[in-house]
Amino acid sequence: MPPRPRSLRIQLAVWFGGLSLVTLLSAGIVVGGIATTGMEQAAGDDLYRSAKAGADLLAVGLREREREIRVLSRAPHFVRGDLDSNDVRQALDLRKQLSSEYAWIGIADAEGKVMQSTDGVLIGNDVHERPWFIQGQQGPYSGDVHEAVLLAKHLPRPPDGQPLRLLDFAIPVYDTEHRLRGVLGAHLQWTWATNTVQNALPPDAAAQGMEVLILNRQGNVLYPQRRVGEHYARQQLGAHASSVIGADGQRYLSSAVTVDTGMPGNLGWQVVVRQRLFDALAPAHALRNSLIAAGIAAALLFSLVGYLLAANLARPVEALAKAVRDIGRGETQPSFPQGRMTREVLRLRDAIRDMSRALLGHQQELETMNASLEAQVAERTEALSAANRELERLATHDGLTGVFNRRRFDEKLHEMVLAAQRSGRSFALLIVDADHFKQINDVHGHQIGDEVLKQLAALLDAGTRATDFVARYGGEEFVVLLPETQSISEGLIVAEKIRGMVEETAFEGAGQVTVSIGLAVSGAEANTGPALIARADQALYHAKQGGRNQVVAL
What we know:
The chain has 13 helices and 17 strands. By secondary structure, it is of the alpha+beta class. It folds into two domains: about 5-305, Beta-Lactamase, CATH 3.30.450.20; about 405-554, Alpha-Beta Plaits (2-Layer Sandwich), CATH 3.30.70.270. The strands form four sheets. A five-stranded antiparallel β-sheet has the order 2-1-5-4-3. α1 packs antiparallel against α7 and α7 (about 280-330) runs antiparallel to α8. The longest helix has about 70 residues, at about 10-75. It is elongated. About 30% of the residues are buried.
């Protein structure tokens, strides 16, 4: 028995639907692959930027702490005075108050006995076997993170209940004849380092499945606490993320940046930012699913169109078949559908014309939709540009006072040092510190203290030239860069003007406020950024020691 012939309607419906489905699915696979590659690259770039920001912030912070301890070790109380004097104690307490990152600062004599320390903790204890004291006798020392030993009983545990973990800094203290008097040691809160790195991540990092790790030189995890001690293979450094398989068996995008402090005894840490590959490619997966759904819907629609088209093509044939059947039944004068065939052809022509009109209408609708989408894309692009500009402003300006922040100051100082080295023209640096600012906060409250800082920033901005650079250095300290300042006398004029303006201004809620100013001018003795900062910081120290509300230049 011969096979039953297939209907023209079914064949056209299958062909139309199959071809449309294959075409759209092929396009979906290609587009999905391109989108996956692009999204993986973009996600990797984001991870690298976050890791780079965290490593840079941590390196800057470690350099600043090392500089603070170095400057403190050269103070007259440590070089010439008695190591157990109240002046030494006050200097240590003041340094700790100015930088909340410190858990303990103390000085031990050459035999390892603690002579003075912040809050009097560990005075009289023997620390000659502690690594920071042993290494600190030889030169500046930076120690890796460790759990507190002697200090564990004297300092509060972290709020999360985890063990108290510290970072060590130490530096030898010499007298005027370069004889070793003792070792100045400082322990930093480990939470300061972890918070610094964590703040480099985007606000929605947890929602995106992003995680930050800190590794030591051997590749052991230092942070987060739940992974401490785990080994994590150190990655090859580069501006691109790598695809790795984690200990949980999942694939991650991971980017690593070394924390380069530029100090002796670099710790060799790496900041690693990673994200599950599934989370990074979630938009690509959603796009793929949308394309599959669109392909199925289009296949069904085209199948229906094919079936209707086949029906229109079959009607003239059916009319001819009826005429043939009439002849088979004995009709002598069959009625052939010549006229009706012409009408069917015309009807087919009209149908094709109507279909063309319908397709044209769909095309116009698509063009209208495309124009609307392009307008939306332009609007979103402008909004993104505005957001990027705001992010750039936030990255370079202090959120409270509106002047430039510490990060932008470091960049500007570096630029001016390079320009001075090329041109030979010097510039001046002012470090402006609000006197007794802690007392303002204690007496009037932190809100009044914030208003004082805002008004002080406005006075600095008003008392300087348009070419000068004003930034908040940290806490109640501000810095001012004075280009084209060739002598200390020129800088003193500006500094005295600022000091006088502040003294004569009534600060709302706080009354009279004064400032102490340290001035330094670039030159042979201060031809680098750190050297100039150290010189101005030393001048500020003398201004404070000399009674405050004054300008001291070095």
